[in-house]
Amino acid sequence: MKADLSPVIAATAQWLTCAYPASGGPMASALCEAQARQAVTVAARLRYPTPMDAALMGMAGPGGSARLDWITGADGTAAADPDGHAWRTWVDEVVASWAACLLTDPRLAEQAVTALAEDGDRTGGTPAEFRHLLAPDDHDRRAAALLRHPDLVAPVAALHHPELLTRLTPGQAQAA
Prior knowledge:
The chain contains ten helices and no strands. The protein is mostly helical. The protein has one domain. The radius of gyration is 15 Å and the shape is globular.
């Protein structure tokens, strides 16, 4: 994984698991986090497909979670303890939206992972690497019931869904 994307992947996955938490204890939390991280990794690699894209994002910053917090009603939580939520500045709204799309649409998730391979993704990535995203078992589904619920994540997924579809259309520009 490209180190430049690590903070964005970590923060965006954390945001998703905070907004749509697992239920069922530590194992469910770990499974939910694995699914969020895999979806965010695919989305980030699609969003920032070249080292230059990642470097520019690193210089400009990913934008933060303010709009996502507002949409999900978590804006008061973030404002209550700004020092404890500094990680939220590394959340990428587009990546979160694309990850939500991938988590709720298995066909789109498979298409996205295939696109990474076809693009010659510099970091590799095989369907086996994204097993929790592409082929969730019953434990995965139960652990991430909120995270994978199309109606619950629809406000986030809808934000940048058209851009994801454009990015996955063959012949489109690499950078999203």
